[in-house]
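FAQ

Q: What does a record look like?
A: Structure on top, sequence underneath. For example:
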């Protein structure tokens, strides 16, 4: 299954994502279907159904994939691998939150994006966000490279379908491959969904950030809503937003400095700056 997890970002593959239907939202009775055609160096074994474990007892998104492995030399289909009943965790609440179109909510999203101080030369990473947040970043903040990291293959497929230049990778943000350049801006849009201690996350990102990089942790609705989401989606929301003192001490241990911290009833924002060893000695 490892080739499926990396199919969206493989540098040796040309990926064509062709959703047969994007007219209906996910998690309905008729799941969307995808046909993924690609040229690849990866060897695909004989066809076999793979069932991804169902982790959410309330709602689930069932996706059906047909992956055609094409031999680049003769253009004929060599093998077909069927992935039926591919079941994901329920991430729909992220998009539900960001479909809120009231002026106050949109101002909060703009504030989160502005905190990253994205420039045209920036390499940007977005972790576990909604499609709407990615839309807003693409539309408002041109950059040299944008990488979206998410657990949801469906979310990544929809993003890739809309923005061919956006890089997509399925996996944990602490395991992002080194083939991408050091990041100037990192958005941890939904930190409570990361199953790691804050120290682990900052230690991993310190290895991938450029000197002076900005790390933005946020929640446009604040801690109280996170606690409600923990009860409603316990398989997805597995931790809490860090308190101010914890954030300051943990950040300092991993060469980050807290530049801004906002913890209001309806809004959470923490902006960290990464400094390298040479800078810290000055």
């Amino acid at each position: 299954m490892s080739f499926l997890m990396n199919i969206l970002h493989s540098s040796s593959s040309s990926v064509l994502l062709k959703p047969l239907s994007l007219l209906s939202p996910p998690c309905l009775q008729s799941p969307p279907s995808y046909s993924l055609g690609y040229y690849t160096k990866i060897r695909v074994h004989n066809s076999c159904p793979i069932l991804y474990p169902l982790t959410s007892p309330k709602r689930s998104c069932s996706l059906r994939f047909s992956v055609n492995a094409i031999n680049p030399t003769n253009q004929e289909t060599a093998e077909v691998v069927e992935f039926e009943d591919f079941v994901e965790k329920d991430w729909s609440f992220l998009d539900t939150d960001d479909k809120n179109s009231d002026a106050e909510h949109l101002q909060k999203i703009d504030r989160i994006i502005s905190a990253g101080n994205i420039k045209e030369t920036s390499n940007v990473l977005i972790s576990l966000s909604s499609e709407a947040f990615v839309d807003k970043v693409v539309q408002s903040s041109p950059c040299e490279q944008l990488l979206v990291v998410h657990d949801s293959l469906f979310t990544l497929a929809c993003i890739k379908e809309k923005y061919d230049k956006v890089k997509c990778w399925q996996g944990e943000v602490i395991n992002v491959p080194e083939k991408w350049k050091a990041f100037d801006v990192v958005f941890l849009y939904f930190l409570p969904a990361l199953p790691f201690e804050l120290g682990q996350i900052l230690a991993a990102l310190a290895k991938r950030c450029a000197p002076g990089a900005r790390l933005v942790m946020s929640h446009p609705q604040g801690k109280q809503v996170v606690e409600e989401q923990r009860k409603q989606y316990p398989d997805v929301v597995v931790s809490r937003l860090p308190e101010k003192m914890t954030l300051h001490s943990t950040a300092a241990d991993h060469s980050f400095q807290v530049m801004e911290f906002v913890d209001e009833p309806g809004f959470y924002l923490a902006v960290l700056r990464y400094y390298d060893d040479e800078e810290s000695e000055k």
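Q: Is there anything notable about this one?
A: The longest strand covers residues 77-88.
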